[in-house]
Amino acid sequence: MSRWRRDESGQVAGMEVLPFGLLTFVVGLLLVANAWAVVDAKMAVSAAAREATRAFVEAPADGDPWALADAAARSAIAGTGRDPAKLVLTPVEATLSRCRTVRYEASYRIPAVRVPWLGGFGAGFTATARHAEIVDPYRTGLPLSEPGCAPTS
């Protein structure tokens, strides 16, 4: 009987498996959280591009549409809990006249790995979104841009 108590032959795994299993669980959880961060950033920049385009299209004729678009995009990014200073907003097509297409592109850089309470690490990914709208053809106070655009009285 004393041989059985001291002999460990036939033991497959011991306590060292528990830390390895816990480590595997934590790494998997971090991967899922980072994948969700990419999806969340894509939704945030999509909202920023949409709000910038909408603010530009609906800007008053005597106002500054570029400043309104920038403020709207940064407000949309701040509303998602992200840093508005990291947003890169690019007007692809931005002419405020009737029947013109206005396009904005928004980009936001996110880290490759984000650990709670420690921050982000790695080169990361860039989430980019574009949005386009057409300026109202019946809007007053704006110049006519297209030959087939509806005239105002």
Brief descriptors of the model:
153 residues; alpha+beta; three-stranded antiparallel β-sheet; two-stranded antiparallel sheet; 40% helix
- Number of E-state strands: 5
The poorly predicted ranges are none
CA-based gyration radius: 27 Å
CA-CA gap between termini: 107 Å
What does this protein structure show overall?
By secondary structure, this protein is an alpha+beta fold. It has one domain (17-134). 40% of the residues lie in helices and 22% in strands. It has helices spanning 2-6, 17-57, 65-79; strands at 87-93, 101-110, 113-115, 119-121, 125-134. The protein has a three-stranded antiparallel β-sheet with strand order 1-2-5. Strands 3-4 form a two-stranded antiparallel sheet. The protein is rod-shaped and about 95 Å long.
What is the fold's blueprint, element by element?
Elements: H1 2-6, H2 17-57, H3 65-79, E1 87-93, E2 101-110, E3 113-115, E4 119-121, E5 125-134
